[in-house]
Amino acid sequence: MILLFLVDAICLVCRKACLDSFREHAIHCKELSGFKYRHYMVRDAFFDICRRAGISAKKEALVNFLTDPSDERSTLKPADVLVFGWVRGKHAYMDLIGVSPLVGLSSRGFTAGQAALKAALGKVTKHEKACIENQHVFIPFAFDTFGFLAPEAVELLIRVQRVMHNNLMTPRSTDVVFNVLALQSKKG
């Protein structure tokens, strides 16, 4: 919360957002390589866990709904991970959301997990209705760089961990899911 410079300016990396005087934007600018790198690391780790546990999933899966008739292409980005038959036979469209826990810190006090929960809610508002209308389940997988996981992500990981334990039956399988993903979210 120390003022780093006196005048607000446009971010030199993304050239879109205002680089505020507290330098908050510099921590979470989506054009910085570390931001996307962490997202991909967590996505790849989750996909690998699914594969090892025997869960049928696809990474960066294109969905065939929400198409614009004039463009003939999907207006919904590919699922970060599409888990087949996950909830009562419906496919789960999983969208990873990695955020800095310091987003919005200058305007209000710090609450652990607040940024991840807000980001998850935004994704639910944006994608859930379209997924439901097309017989899919939407799962926002929100996490922050301090290791906070949104409740939907925790619920998903607990279920994946149970499947892994039932299919692999190794002592290590009981906590490997949370350990691997926690490492990847912080490693980036």
From TrEMBL:
<keyword id="KW-0732">Signal</keyword>
<protein>
    <recommendedName>
        <fullName>Reverse transcriptase domain-containing protein</fullName>
    </recommendedName>
</protein>
<feature type="signal peptide">
    <location>
        <begin position="1"/>
        <end position="19"/>
    </location>
</feature>
